[in-house]
Amino acid sequence: SQTIHQWPATLVQPVGSPLSLECTVEGTSNPNLYWYRQAAGRGLQLLFYSVGIGQISSEVPQNLSASRPQDRQFILSSKKLLLSDSGFYLCAWSPSVDGYTFGSGTRLTVV
Amino acid sequence: SQKIEQNSEALNIQEGKTATLTCNYTNYSPAYLQWYRQDPGRGPVFLLLIRENEKEKRKERLKVTFDTTLKQSLFHITASQPADSATYLCALRYGGATNKLIFGTGTLLAVQP
């Protein structure tokens, strides 16, 4: 069966520090992969999506970047965090047409 | 731009009653609409998908309707239980083969014993 792993679960980082969140998927190949952010009391906002290795599309301009170095690995990064980057980050994958499977999320607090 | 609206007010109902949640959208003609459940501090969990040519979809105690004329979906939980308490999100698919989703802000359901 397919599983998705996301880590770390929580992270407290100072402003200006770098960020790396990792997501891996098991049990499937060539999945569509997504990074969403959920701010407190807000809906999920799509940040990046990828349809294949090295193929990254950004939905909104921001202080973050994403990479897909392997078929089932998706990484969210930042060189210098801002306070506004705080939030709940979720990785997800989907078959071509079906519901998403989300990771357990990373709660990021920038202080 | 596409906009999805869900009732931001929490919905409080008594155990055993039917909960009905609403999702309205504008500026969009989605081929699919999905519903998710999200518990505090957890990622959303996929519940149901309904296509534009389907009026109704059922799964156990869950029922979803999709009215493309009204641009509205209703999500029903029959015989509700306290364990059904959670935030429920609706999502619309866009972007073709990329299967990107735009989510509503969710409605918090609280089922009282």
3D structure, described in words:
The complex is a heterodimer of chains A (111) and B (113). Chain A is an all-beta fold. In chain A, 0% of the residues lie in helices and 58% in strands. Chain A contains no helices and 11 strands. Chain A has strands spanning 3-7, 10-13, 19-26, 32-38, 44-52, 55-58, 65-70, 73-78, 87-94, 101-102, 106-110. In chain A, strands 2, 4, 5, 6, 9, 10 and 11 form a 7-stranded mixed sheet that branches. In chain A, strands 1-3-8-7 form a 4-stranded antiparallel sheet, with no helix packed on it. Chain A is globular. Chain A starts with a strand and ends with a strand. The mean pLDDT of chain A is 93. Chain B is 0% helix and 58% strand. Chain B has 113 residues and is mainly beta. The model of chain B has no long low-confidence stretch (mean pLDDT 92). In chain B, strand 4 (32-38) and strand 5 (45-51) form a beta hairpin. Chain B contains no helices and 11 strands. The chains are: A mainly beta (111), B mainly beta (113). Chain A binds chain B through residues 6, 32, 34, 36, 41-44, 46, 49, 51, 57, 59, 88, 90, 92, 94-105, 107, and chain B through 4, 32, 34, 36, 41-49, 89, 93, 97-106.
Radius of gyration of chain B: 14 Å
Number of helices of chain A: 0
The string of secondary-structure elements of chain B, in order, is: EEEEEEEEEEE
Distance between the termini of chain A: 38 Å
- Provide the β-strand percentage band of chain A: over 45%
What is the count of helical runs of chain B? 0
How many individual β-strands of chain B? 11
